[in-house]
Design goal:
With about 280 residues, the protein is α+β, with helices and mostly antiparallel strands. Helix content is about 50%, strand content about 25%. The protein has eight helices and eleven strands. Helix 3 packs across helix 5.
Length: about 280
């Protein structure tokens, strides 16, 4: 007896294709690691130590889970409240520019759930700033801001090292200080001090200017006195200089009470004809 082969209906065939396509999509073994990322594989709940670079890769369907971590520079704003060397309360605002270590991505995922800054580093960096603040006065926080930034950066880099393996949890690139705020009373005192210093500088400028003016006046008086002395000596040696000066100043008109005694064609003298002078003569 010959058995007939079971025929598959078109509906069943179409359903099989759809189900197969869904399974393939869900079990897609191909994955991509984007630029600026690293990845690790979590297999059966265990994170492997191998770091996967950017590009196209293949995983085991339903077994491997791909975990990606950004390795591009991160910029996080933060703030710390602390005290200076002279016990002044101070509020320091700063940014932390950092990257996650490229070669330690697996531990970053395992220990810190891909958030090493939030889980570990932020507190350590705050403590580093507090340590530096205790070494400087409030005034020095203004005048030595760059020095304080460099010292805080050095301390922070040491602070974010994990004691277990001696590796840095994050690589800190820079910690720029964005703002410094003092206690309200201290800020008033600073402003009052600045005003006093400005007033003192103005007073000093006026004093120096007065000294310069006095020296100029003395030099001018000395010059005029010297000129008069030279003129007096010249007149004593040559009385005709006085006569010459009178002629230079003459405007060409005789006084009303004077007349000219003519000697030939030349005027030889001026005679005062006022009644008072005539009576005296």
């Amino acid at each position: 007896m010959i058995k007939r082969r079971a025929e598959v209906s078109p509906a069943v065939f179409a359903a099989s294709i759809v189900i197969g396509a869904v399974i393939i999509l869900c079990a897609n073994p191909v994955y991509f690691v984007q630029s600026g990322q690293k990845a690790v594989i979590k297999r059966f709940g265990v994170v492997e130590q191998k770091v996967i670079d950017e590009g196209m890769h293949v995983k085991t369907p339903f077994v491997d889970q791909v975990l990606t971590v950004s390795i591009t520079p991160q910029n996080v704003a933060s703030e710390v409240n602390t005290y200076t060397k002279d016990n002044q309360p101070i509020d320091v605002c700063y940014n932390v520019l950092y990257v996650k270590p490229k070669d330690d991505i697996a531990n970053t995922v395992i220990r810190y759930q891909s958030k090493p800054y939030e889980s570990f580093a932020s507190t350590k960096i705050n403590d580093a700033f507090k340590a530096v603040a205790g070494e400087y006065t409030a005034t020095e926080f203004v005048t030595k801001r760059e020095t304080i930034r460099r010292e805080a950066l050095a301390k922070a880099k040491l602070a974010v090292v994990n004691d277990t393996d001696g590796k840095a949890v994050i690589d800190i690139l820079d910690i720029p200080i964005t703002n410094i705020t003092f206690d309200a009373e201290y800020e008033k005192a600073i402003k009052a001090k600045q005003v006093a210093q400005q007033d003192a500088q103005k007073a000093e400028y006026k004093l120096q200017q007065a000294k310069v003016d006095a020296q100029s006046a003395i030099a001018k008086a000395e010059g005029e006195a010297k000129a008069l002395t030279v003129k007096a000596v010249a007149i004593s040696k040559s009385p005709q200089i006085v006569r010459l000066k009178e002629i230079e100043k003459w405007d060409g008109h005789f006084p009303l009470n004077a007349k000219t005694i003519m000697d030939g064609a030349n005027a030889s003298a001026l005679v005062d004809t006022s009644s008072s002078n005539l009576l005296k003569k």
